[in-house]
Amino acid sequence: MSKIVDKSYFSPNVVRLEIEAPLIAKSRRAGHFVIVKVGEKGERIPLTIADSNLEKGTITLVVQKMGVSSTKLCSLNIGDEVTDLVGPLGKATHIENFGTVVCAGGGVGVAPLLPIVTALKKAGNRVITVLAARTKELVILEEQMRAFSDEVIVMTDDGSYGRQGLVTTGVESVINREKVDLCVTIGPAVMMKFVSQLTKKYEVPTVASLNTIMVDGTGMCGACRISVGGQTKFVCVDGPEFDAHQVDFDEMIMRLGAYRDEEQVAKK
């Protein structure tokens, strides 16, 4: 079991958990994720590692209360333990000096974007980060993003903070003013779909970190399968990052709703 050593809230439904995991903290790289389970019969939840602290031997996870399992995880307090914590899993982000990189994050997708922004900046890139949320209260990690970004653009649906509009508006404003060599996007599937459509129009190479349903996390169950360039891939072992212009987002979105009825029953 792994103990929770710190807990804080970005909003009533978005929780930051710092968990003891010295071996994972030592070996994780940007893009890696873990699978967490609360209770012996709990559901296995994939979560990207937002940060790590080698001195403390901890990793940081950002969790949004959505269903039964994520709510159970968010209800844990300092001193409590998660039943299982497995990782680091997946392939790490490919980092090099691309030039100018736009990093677009939506909602809690901003958390796994942070280590990628950090690594890209350390590799010498010009990093422009676009953060998107429905309201000002839901914008997270802005200060941390500014520390490793040349520019941060904040977009809110209601205009309560930053600029009013969707994440695509912010991304397009950058593309229209300067040459962009790469775009990295993480967030809700529908958000990544529209960012991909936009960057494809402008012929900007784009990487998306996918958040599919997972069970074992080792490529054996097939629950996370997606179509990339007409071929079947497994997000847990082939990803989680893929060429966004090759991803069949419509298929992915459909599969994300596969257990919606069961989830509603579990909430009762």
Would you write up a description of this structure?
α5 runs parallel beside α6 (189-201). The protein has helices spanning 22-27, 68-75, 110-122, 142-147, 167-175, 189-201, 235-238, 249-256, 260-267; strands spanning 2-11, 14-20, 33-37, 44-48, 51-53, 58-64, 81-82, 84-89, 100-106, 126-133, 151-156, 163-164, 182-186, 206-209, 225-228, 231-234, 241-243. The mean pLDDT is 90. The longest helix is centred in the middle third of the chain and has 13 residues, at 110-122. Helix content is 28%, strand content 33%. The radius of gyration is 18 Å and the shape is globular. The strands form 4 sheets. A 7-stranded mixed sheet has the order 12-11-10-9-13-14-17, with helices on both faces. The protein has a 5-stranded antiparallel sheet with strand order 5-6-2-1-7. The chain has a 3-stranded antiparallel sheet with strand order 4-3-8, covered by helices on one side.
List its salient traits.
33% strand, Elongation Factor Tu (Ef-tu), domain 3, Rossmann fold, seven-stranded mixed β-sheet, 268 residues, 2 domains, alpha/beta
* Number of structurally distinct domains: 2
Strand order of the largest sheet: 12-11-10-9-13-14-17
Give a count of the beta strands, DSSP E runs of length 2 or more: 17
Distance between the termini: 28 Å
User: Which class best fits the helix and strand makeup?
Assistant: alpha/beta
State the helix count: 9
Based on CA atoms alone, the radius of gyration comes out at: 18 Å
Work out the oligomeric state of the chains in this entry. Answer: single chain
Q: Give helix and strand order, one letter per element, not per position.
A: EEHEEEEHEEEHEHEEHEHEEEHEHH
Contiguous runs where pLDDT drops below 50 for at least 5 residues: none
Architecture per CATH nomenclature, i.e. the level-2 architecture of the largest domain: 3-Layer(aba) Sandwich
Average residue-wise pLDDT:
90
